[in-house]
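Run log // design_07
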């Protein structure tokens, strides 16, 4: 155990975590030139396309230190985006130390601070590493001041590197060996292993990713999951060396995988403790904090026959993404589906894309919403995250919506545009600091419902990608909330209903009507698309009818003949409108979700 080091790399998005992981893997010889590719730990197509890490990946790096000893360095790579902070907390629970990566050009950002606090909560050894020192815009002295003033770390302990050029990599590996403590635990104690991730393999069942804190596990052992007391026989254990590599056993302090023929996906829970059935440990390991989703949306299959496929795919997906929660739901317009909880709008996008790619599903999402609170006249308090469960307006005494504290770091030149954006989103109680010349730190309290709609995209646009954004929930505040219904040809479309602030209702309703007008095909009769609050229509557009030229056969002759034919057509259209139904295409639901900036 003295020769094992478990560490993680944490940083703000785009500060070079994946590139540094690539260099460490190359330096330790895990990957040769033939098998190497950039972002080698990002094994999903979507991660490569977007240039972001979504899933934390583990890899064991064999390293011969300058003292001549052989070490095993277990790297658990982490995402940087705020929506995946839960992945980071799970990785940190399996480590003894972290490399805190800071971009030499951009300096300390919002998520750098948030991830540092996470590491401190787990009492981990923190090694500050300044990356991208090869850039012409690199300002190492300014970053050292920020490490001291903003992070409260000793700047003398920092390391400098360029992950792209490969400079400073050996110094980082030596610092990991010298400064990160070896894992504690006993190989003689009863087995206690923490599940920090899992994935479903159609041939082998569930592959469990775990960190062993005490004891030893080997193939042939009967293991027990402490959450639900289900038992399984271990078929294979091993390490992650890019690909799974089989081993005789996994002992205290090691990170690896266990395959035990687990076909019942629901038996495996991230954060659960694995122990031996014959000699169990007395108490489970402290798992991860219970995650609370902040954005809710319903997922429906485009073809109702695919409902069972969607249900089994969601069950397998939750193995690999423990922050995703769902329950059954149904809609008059879209049929059977699931109400899902997400950590943010990027998380929602990623879940949608992964379900479509990895499980070959065609799905549709309802309008995202947050969890609102309503106090009724009888004194009861209810929480509503689905517009379908909005209470009777006459029974509501007061309504509340969640507020967040948004921390933004940005170049000073974009300050005016960002402040205007925050004011548009009902932001209040702003504070402004200048942590360094030319950089501003802006804090606003804003309703979460405004932020999930299109705030992040617009923030990135107005700061031209240089701004960073992080938020945390603070409390619920009184707000004037109403239910906005969309009616097509007089029929309410429940999948498009939204709970909105009364001030925003008209703009939101008009936008939804305009989008639907573009998507709904024309009929032989006029189609009214309306937005309503209760019985009050607040916005309307009309899809004009096709006009059949009934007077084409009349050339010349009396005008009364033409008028008679037009009157007959008008009667027919009126009757058609009474009995005609409008089918809304799937693209119309997706169009309503898009913001004005798209």
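design_07 sequence
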């Amino acid at each position: 155990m003295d020769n094992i080091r478990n560490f993680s790399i944490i940083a703000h998005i785009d500060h070079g975590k994946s590139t540094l992981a690539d260099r460490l893997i190359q330096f330790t010889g895990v990957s040769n030139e033939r098998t190497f590719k950039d972002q080698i730990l990002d094994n999903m197509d979507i991660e490569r396309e977007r240039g972001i890490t979504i899933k934390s990946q583990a890899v064991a790096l064999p390293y011969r230190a300058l003292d001549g000893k052989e070490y095993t360095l277990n790297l658990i790579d982490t995402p940087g985006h705020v929506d995946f902070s839960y992945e980071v907390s799970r990785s940190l629970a399996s480590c003894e130390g972290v490399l805190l990566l800071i971009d030499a050009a951009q300096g300390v950002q919002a998520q750098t601070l948030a991830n540092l606090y996470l590491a401190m909560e787990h009492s981990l050894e923190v090694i500050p590493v300044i990356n991208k020192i090869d850039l012409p815009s690199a300002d190492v002295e300014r970053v050292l001041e920020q490490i001291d003033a903003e992070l409260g770390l000793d700047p003398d302990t920092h390391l400098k590197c360029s992950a792209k050029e490969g400079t400073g990599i050996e110094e980082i590996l030596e610092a990991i060996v010298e400064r990160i403590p070896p894992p504690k635990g006993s190989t003689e104690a009863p087995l206690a292993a923490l599940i920090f991730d899992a994935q479903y393999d159609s041939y082998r069942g569930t592959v469990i990713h775990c960190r062993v804190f005490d004891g030893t596990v080997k193939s042939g052992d009967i293991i027990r999951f402490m959450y639900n007391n289900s038992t399984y026989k271990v078929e294979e254990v091993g390490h992650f060396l890019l690909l799974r590599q089989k081993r005789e056993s996994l002992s205290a302090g090691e990170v690896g995988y266990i395959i035990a023929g687990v076909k019942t996906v629901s038996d495996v829970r991230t954060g659960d403790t694995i122990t031996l059935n014959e000699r169990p440990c007395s108490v489970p390991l402290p798992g991860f904090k219970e995650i609370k989703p902040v954005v809710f949306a319903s997922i429906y299959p485009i073809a109702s026959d695919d409902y069972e496929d969607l249900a089994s795919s969601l069950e397998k997906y939750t193995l690999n993404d423990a922050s995703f929660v769902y329950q059954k739901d149904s809609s008059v317009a879209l049929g059977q589906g699931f109400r899902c909880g997400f950590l943010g709008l990027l998380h929602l996008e990623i879940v949608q894309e992964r379900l479509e790619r990895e499980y070959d599903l065609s799905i549709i999402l309802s309008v995202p919403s947050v969890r609102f609170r309503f106090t009724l006249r009888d004194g009861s308090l209810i929480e509503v995250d689905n517009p379908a469960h909005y209470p009777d307006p006459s029974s509501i005494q007061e309504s509340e919506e969640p507020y967040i504290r948004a921390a933004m770091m940005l170049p000073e030149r974009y300050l005016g545009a960002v402040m205007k954006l925050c004011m548009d989103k009902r932001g209040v109680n702003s504070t402004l600091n200048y942590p360094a010349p030319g950089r501003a730190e802006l804090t606003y309290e804003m309703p979460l419902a405004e932020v999930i709609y299109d705030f992040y995209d617009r923030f990135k646009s107005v700061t031209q990608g240089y701004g960073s954004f992080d938020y945390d929930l603070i409390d619920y505040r009184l707000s004037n909330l109403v239910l906005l219904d969309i009616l097509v040809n007089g029929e309410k479309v429940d999948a498009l209903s939204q709970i909105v602030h009364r001030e925003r209702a008209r703009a939101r309703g008009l936008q939804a009507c305009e989008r639907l007008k573009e998507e709904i095909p024309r009929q032989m009769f006029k189609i009214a698309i309306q937005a309503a609050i209760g019985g009050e229509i607040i916005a309307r557009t009309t899809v004009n009818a096709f006009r059949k030229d009934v007077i084409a056969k009349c050339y010349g002759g009396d005008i009364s003949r033409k008028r008679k034919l037009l009157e007959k057509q008008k009667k027919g259209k009126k009757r058609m409108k009474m009995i005609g139904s409008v089918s809304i295409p799937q693209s119309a639901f997706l169009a309503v979700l898009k913001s004005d900036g798209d």
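Residues 372-478 form a domain with the Alpha-Beta Plaits fold (CATH 3.30.70.240).
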